[in-house]
Amino acid sequence: GAVVSQHPSWVICKSGTSVKIECRSLDFQATTMFWYRQFPKQSLMLMATSNEGSKATYEQGVEKDKFLINHASLTLSTLTVTSAHPEDSSFYICSAKPINGKNTGELFFGEGSRLTVL
Amino acid sequence: AQSVAQPEDQVNVAEGNPLTVKCTYSVSGNPYLFWYVQYPNRGLQFLLKYITGDNLVKGSYGFEAEFNKSQTSFHLKKPSALVSDSALYFCAVRAPRASGGATNKLIFGTGTLLAVQP
User: Which of A29, B22, B34, B47 has a CB 3.0–4.6 Å from the CB of B59, allowing a cystine?
Assistant: First the structure.
């Protein structure tokens, strides 16, 4: 299957700082990537849809100024949690759907990034 | 509104016994259905999908699922459970597009924790 890489896998930061998480499709291109947030023992909540070359589309209730998304190329999307606070601590997962030969209908997920804000 | 329901928070089964993880859906139009598995602190791994064709879908690691349109269900099954199957399982549906077909946005169920006892 197609491979999606997230970095960092673990990050601990102080309250008030900003943290950037990268999501890369390693062997395919994706015009659209998705960012999810998962709380302990809960399902995935879609935060936003990242669109290559244009603005991200945010789900209702997600602060776009808090969670900055940049989809600079067909293989990279970044999520920046600005002025992080302890309540932002969570597991963030990205996913992508290939636009070319590896497109078989399903989304491919990264391994997730665990953010802990002290 | 489109939704996916997983009625069981946890399923317990003895190793070697058959397992079933239930999923029902509510979606306008033809559903695009998926099962994913998540191991602790990891991203999601694709197991199988139903888009069209045979109602019985076979996927990774010996799992299969049966699409039942009349019951709006897509239960995940395996004839003989392994301890290594213990994980969190998510059923998902792609949100339909108003003009037909489906978007790339996945709507997840709440997840079912499968515990296989030796």
Answer: B47
